[in-house]
Design a protein that fits this description.
seven-stranded mixed sheet, 504 residues
Length: 504
Amino acid sequence: MSDYVVAIDQGTTSSRAIIFDRSGSIISTGQKEHEQIMPQAGWVEHDATEIWQNVQEVIGIALGRADLTRHDIASIGITNQRETTVVWNRKTGKPVYNAIVWQDTRTQAIVDRLAADGGTERFKPVVGLPLATYFSGTKIAWILENVEGAREAADAGDLIFGTTDSWVVWNLTGGPEGGVHVTDVTNASRTLFMDLETLEWRDDILEAFGVPKSMMPSIKSSSEVYGVAEDSSLLRETPISGILGDQQAATFGQAAFEAGESKNTYGTGCFLIFNTGEEIVHSKNGLLTTVGYKIGDGPAHYALEGSIAVTGSLIQWLRDQLGIIQTAPEVEELAASVPDNGGVYIVPAFSGLFAPYWRPDARGAIVGLTRYANKGHIARAALEAVAFQTRDVLDAVNADAGVDLTELRVDGGMVANNELMQFQADVLGVPVVRPVVAETTALGAAYAAGLAVGFWKDLGELSANWQEDRRWEPSMDQDEQDRQLRLWRKAVTKSMDWVDEDVR
């Protein structure tokens, strides 16, 4: 009998394979980072071939560490960095260009061109998203317009597109030799091309972007059998039966299945998702409308999302670009070396500002500097920037939903940082709750996969698995919270209106 499910978590900085048991506990993990390619300011790329090689390797590492074989695995779930765009030749299996990452801003000229007829919300009533460099649609258009021979190959039907879930599934099921070309509704809802009501590609929007429909994967539910791993895989003949974009997967792993439930994931970026049930709610406050999940033939469940581009990657920046820490966990100790931020605020608008501002003209700013400021203040300001950005998004969620959130469930790598979690509770004014299993992104993908093959019975069984690990209660008085938020929002205004025509 197969007693485990494996989740492949293809993330922004690394690929992981995590094996879970029936209680949702982690049995073993394999992880490998991939190169962050930055050819010029605003450009962020990954080598899709490297990613696929790493995925194969981490599967082997996870199986080896647990002393398991494919016979012990009931199913495979996939979760992925959303919006990151891969275009490859269906005959050779080779990408025509590096994967263009969700953080990449090179497509602003395409956004401006499309927005000239109807503004940035031209397609939002249909797809739930504003025109922005963030989403896959403009990235596909850029490849077709700028990579030699890509347009001709696409028109001939030789090129196909996928976010990294599609890339992994296609390769895992045989690649050029019969690979399955699919995505799920959650990833499809991040392209700018999927109708939220029909859950189908919109021909008129594809035409506006100049993207042939033949490039697009089939849209499936988040939990069904899409195919099986090919014979050469260590998981050969194992069904691939769950796909969820990383933020929706984290929501699923947090067992936030019902309307009114939410979570916030602290990873490379920060993503707050609020479940609106079977109702499509169109935000009036700068949030995105997205698909939360769809189980088999069941109805789609929708969500409001606040997407923040730079959180964990701000800590990486302190480490890799500034060198004020040697490892990411050191930031907590450095931040704790000072009693407060010393008047320093960091607005990490490295890719412009995402929700709720949507200001592509913004760039990163450090404000409030005096000679008193030291690297401890910089570290504390970096952590606080994560919490402040989350407060901005939560205010928008409360305004759109019409009811105030009473607690925030959190997950992701940064929730191990106690300084950050306490400050988060302080600036939100509500408790922050961390589950026992903080790897909720991979867990959500495993849950979706296991449901499809009967490994788990229903959502009720999954909800019973969720357990609280720690809770942080707000302790900041109201006057101090108001002061901090006032200064933060003043700092945000200093990051705006930076990009002119001659500034990259």
